[in-house]
């Protein structure tokens, strides 16, 4: 698998991974084909995931700027077409309590407002007619140990006190009776407004809306070279070059090695792995009391997440391999299957039918950054959602569009600070490996 930490070439028109989403979503919608001559554009966006598509859509609708989107492979070939499809009011990895401690309540309210706007925009765009298999609303955060109930209760009270955001606390028996009998769950918080969707169809829907608004989407157009001279940016693709006044980097966890100085050595791509089982029989569903289609995540440092899909399969995800070379090793899918079976012993004979993984984008300070390059206001980027970007990417794309159009953004660290550089970037993978070991010990013993 393409490894952005060591490779400079993200591919050219590569097929979608053999994921459940690619298999159930039907044919891809019409796009504008690969770039095959030299063109000029006011704004070029690199990457056709949620960030790039949202930016193109909002530039066209709200600022009358018709952008050109260059995608190396296919629309949503990166994370946007491979994720678990959880729409949540959150982004990054930094807990609310840590944000309050570092920046105070006002900043935290500002960040909360951004994540809420992200979810609201996704809902509004879906209502315009995107058929992306929206499931029953609800996000369940389960305590993987009895002791974690205390920290979930503290989270619930902080959310209520600061934002007036009410979440439900569920005991183990509430959970087992009304949602699902997960033997690893010792209680939970339930957020009534998270929900599950088909992520690939959501991205295709955004593409349709962006094109209707006047943006051009060009898959099969990898930017292989970038020349920057006198405020003119020239992006070279295999069959044509694009001259642009402004360029937006929306490549996130798939940003090739050394792609642009503004983001080099500032992110860590980490593989998240998903399996999808065969459909559960009525008997298996009953044995696990698997009533809910709410999206579920646990409190581990190395998190697991799952949901029941519309056709009664279970999508189950967690950490994957460390390098692209080992990404397709079945060891990682089998590891997920065994954790799934520990949670639901009645599924002891179940197998998985789909397994794939994708690169989430970690930032050193655990928050996303949406900004222009330190030394060039005509180059902008948004990345570092830390595996929590399905709804936030839409807000990030909208904020990028505002910034391109000269509108001031809220005074928040995510819009004012640059992505921080990793110290000793060559050792990022070693750091990740050490964190995985620390996480395993923390999750088992503390
Ligand atoms: C397995 C998995 C599960 C996840 N589950 C969830 C979830 O349930 N909820 C949630 O909130 N988040 C989840 N995420 C994270 C979420 O999917 C991402 O945060 C989000 O999709 C990022 O969107 P993006 O548009 O910024 O980047 P991407 O969708 O990754 O798009 C980047 C694009 O840039 C293109 N590109 C790279 N280099 C070039 C180049 N040189 N020229 C042209 N194009 C280029 C790539 O081909 C790629 O298509 C998950 C991620 C993974 C991997």
Overall description:
This protein has a domain at 136-190 and 270-363: D-Amino Acid Oxidase, Chain A, domain 2, CATH 3.30.9. The chain is globular. The longest helix is centred in the N-terminal third of the chain and has 23 residues, at 105-127. Helix 2 (50-63) packs across helix 10 (392-404). It has 446 residues and is of the alpha/beta class. The two termini are 35 Å apart. It has twelve helices and 18 strands. Helices cover 32% and strands 23% of the residues. The structure holds flavin-adenine dinucleotide. Flavin-adenine dinucleotide is lined by residues 10, 46-52, 70-73, 76-80, 82-86, 88, 222-223, 250-254, 256, 272, 274, 317, 357-358, 360, 385, 387-390, 393.
Give the helix/strand layout.
Elements: H1 20-24, E1 39-46, H2 50-63, E2 68-70, E3 86-87, H3 96-103, H4 105-127, E4 139-142, H5 148-163, E5 168-171, H6 172-178, E6 187-191, E7 195-196, H7 199-212, E8 216-218, E9 225-229, E10 232-237, E11 240-249, E12 267-277, H8 282-287, E13 295-298, E14 305-308, E15 314-319, H9 330-343, E16 352-363, E17 369-373, E18 376-383, H10 392-404, H11 413-416, H12 428-445
Flavin-adenine dinucleotide is lined by residues 10, 46-52, 70-73, 76-80, 82-86, 88, 222-223, 250-254, 256, 272, 274, 317, 357-358, 360, 385, 387-390, 393.
